[in-house]
């Protein structure tokens, strides 16, 4: 078991200055501990010899100054370490979010969002104890015992030898208990993450559970997971309390041994009174940091366990299409085709998801010319959404090639590629903010006029203006105050305001009334003319005016029809 997590220290580089301050102040505290003991021993010895208060008044004033300075140095070290913890937590959260975005929806679909949220919030908050108390205490546990042993040995070598022999018992017992604590804390954290993820799923699916009469069953499941987490937490606490008892008992016995042998030699006049006082005052200080570091290890175990879960996410390899593309030596900036004029070509492309035997799409061959309106039809589960995800580069081809005007799709920087695409998913997400801000997510910095024009094209202007504050009405969590059709219209407005050359629509009219759906069909055919539009849909009525109708999932004879420029064939084998 390592006393310090090297991965955490690696991520703590951004907070190195604060950690250096904490270590320096730890050195100061060590010197002040020795000074405090020496001054107090001198003052007590002087008082025992019958000297007047005036004889050691200066010593008492200096002792008071040392005590205040020790408290200030301890406070300053903890404050610096807390700032280090805040920086590390912020850095880890940013890295985790950035990496999750690079991994994409295909990876996130197999995860529990509630568990990831718990790791990034409650879990990382446990790092406060690790940086603010455990690491500073670890520095003191190395410096203070060494300084005490050297000082005591110089004063009385027998007492110094006793302390040096008994000191290793504390870290030995702490290591034995710590290994069990680490395993138990990991189990406790896994159960908490499982509980968080399951609880989020239950809350989100509560209407479905109530409709099908399964709410009571989920209550039992949550009660079971909660009970397991409670039991794991109580086991962890029991270990922490028992370990504290073991460490306190060991330190007390070791201190008692030093006190007995020092007292006996003092009684027989083999040790000066001031030297004996110095030894007795410093002996508890030798064991105190070691007991403290063991206690703080238990307090910080939850944070380190959560950090390990986040490191697993950060170490998840990125899909090839999100990896940085290295240009050939001597080449200029990577060429990014302009989708206003570029042709997209898919040649025998197959997409497969991990853990599935059957490909999700393909083999598919398709040519998408600029300005085309293409309808993607077919039964559910045949690859319509997967085709859009392929063009968004959320997934990569398992076989075949995808190119844009002769340039391999994988050689185009992802951000530059997606900057030319607007997308409406089946279930759009909305975030805290006003209606206008949620629409403007499609084009940051869009003017209010552009936002209102996009809302008008999507048929959303009427219901938005009827809201209490119009476009400034705040949307709650997941825009729950809006109907599914209204949310879909906002998603369309977000795509329209983007003004992108390639528009990908996944069931854009699925939740709309027939009149609203017909209006969106007209917008796609007329207002979006000049753009390349791909629409994945179950409806065939919107296919009028389409340059291609691609049917996925059927036999080749029933694959597609192309009223304008031919036929695009796509079928699962």
Short synopsis of the structure:
With 573 residues, the protein is of the alpha/beta class.
Q: What does this protein structure show overall?
A:
With 573 residues, this protein is an alpha/beta fold. The chain has 2 domains: 6-314, ABC transporter transmembrane region fold (Up-down Bundle), CATH 1.20.1560; 344-561, Rossmann fold. 60% of the residues lie in helices and 9% in strands. The chain contains 17 helices and 12 strands. Strands 6-9-10-3-11-12 form a 6-stranded mixed sheet, sandwiched between helices. It has a 4-stranded antiparallel sheet with strand order 2-1-4-5, with helices on one face. A two-stranded antiparallel sheet has the order 7-8. Helix 2 packs antiparallel against helix 10, helix 3 (57-108) runs antiparallel to helix 4 and helix 7 runs parallel beside helix 10. The longest helix is centred in the middle third of the chain and has 53 residues, at 215-267. It is elongated. The two termini are 53 Å apart. 38% of the residues are buried.
